[in-house]
Design goal:
By secondary structure, the chain is mainly α. The protein has five helices and two strands, in the order ααβααβα. It has one domain. The N and C termini lie close together (9 Å). This is Aminotransferase-like plant mobile domain-containing protein. It comes from Prunus armeniaca.
Length: 119
């Protein structure tokens, strides 16, 4: 499959800024809590099950604009793990955390390239 084919099928462009990775993101608890909110503390692991993320956050009601951004970042993390970058383990890796740090910049990254690479 070519990048053009992938873009036509998924609607995701294979262009943009290179993703930022951090293989040690799971160890940066305070930054994870700042980015994803306090519910992440109880499920924190380098590789988290998609269903654990959904179960932990599905009843969480954001009360502030900051919490709304945290929930947005968690949702995108879950989508990455369940569809774009999934594997047989139904898990998502936290090393995408730096690319999710600013909600307004998430669209600027090359997510199509990541999805194509995971195929």
């Amino acid at each position: 499959m070519t990048p053009k084919d992938f873009s036509a099928i998924t609607g995701l462009p294979v262009c943009g800024k290179s993703l930022k990775y951090d293989k040690e993101a799971h160890a940066k608890i305070e930054e994870l809590v700042r980015l994803f909110g306090t519910p992440i503390r109880s499920i924190l692991n380098a590789k988290m099950k998609y269903r654990d993320i959904v179960n932990k956050y599905k009843r969480w009601k954001p009360q502030t604009p900051e919490q709304e951004e945290q929930l947005t970042s968690v949702f995108i993390l879950a989508v990455l793990g369940n569809s774009l970058c999934n594997d047989k383990s139904d898990s998502v890796y936290l090393y995408y955390m730096p690319s999710l740090a600013k909600v307004e910049e998430i669209k600027d990254y090359n997510w199509g390239g990541v999805g194509l690479a995971c195929l």
